[in-house]
Design a protein that fits this description.
elongated; 3 domains; mainly alpha; single chain; Cytochrome Bc1 Complex, Chain D, domain 2
């Protein structure tokens, strides 16, 4: 007597093979996306530093010394794990104006920003924003310094007489 097998059971090997190939494909796709995302170009890194200065700087101060948000200088972040900083950037801080950036930035970009903030490369404290009048301001400052030094030398000559 031949035993009848359930038709659903006969389809299991085929279904298993399809599931295996789908999962394998998804894993390969995820791995290839992560590999390319982890390799940011120098241009992308510069754009992220610009974003940090401008967007983050609007709350944390253009020189990252604090403002509406806390200071983001290396000395202020000392002792905070990289993973913690990545989570704060990604998820934001509930109950504060700090928004989550996970919908805007990739994990690789968030990782780069967190590493940059903790690194010796973080020179944002030295950053002074240039305005469209910066060159005019510099000329005025030079003229003022020159006038001040002339006034000082005239005053010193008058004291000597």
């Amino acid at each position: 007597m031949q035993q009848k097998t359930n038709p659903a059971v006969r389809k299991l090997p085929l279904l298993s093979a399809v599931i295996y190939f789908i999962i394998t494909g998804l894993v390969a796709l995820a791995t290839s996306n992560n590999a390319s995302a982890n390799e940011l170009t120098p241009k992308q890194k510069q754009e992220l530093i610009y974003l940090l200065k401008q967007d983050c700087g609007s709350c944390h101060g253009l020189t990252m010394q604090g403002g509406l948000g806390p200071a983001l200088l290396k000395k202020n972040l000392k002792g905070k794990p990289l993973n913690y900083i990545e989570i704060v950037i990604s998820e934001g801080r509930p109950g504060t104006p700090m928004p989550p950036w996970k919908e805007i930035l990739t994990k690789a970009e968030i990782h780069f920003i967190a590493e940059y903030l903790l690194s010796d490369s973080n020179v944002l404290a030295n950053y002074l924003p240039k305005t469209k009048h910066s060159s005019d301001d510099e000329k005025v400052n030079k003229k003022q310094k020159s006038a001040n030094s002339k006034a000082t030398s005239v005053t010193q000559k008058n004291k000597g007489s």
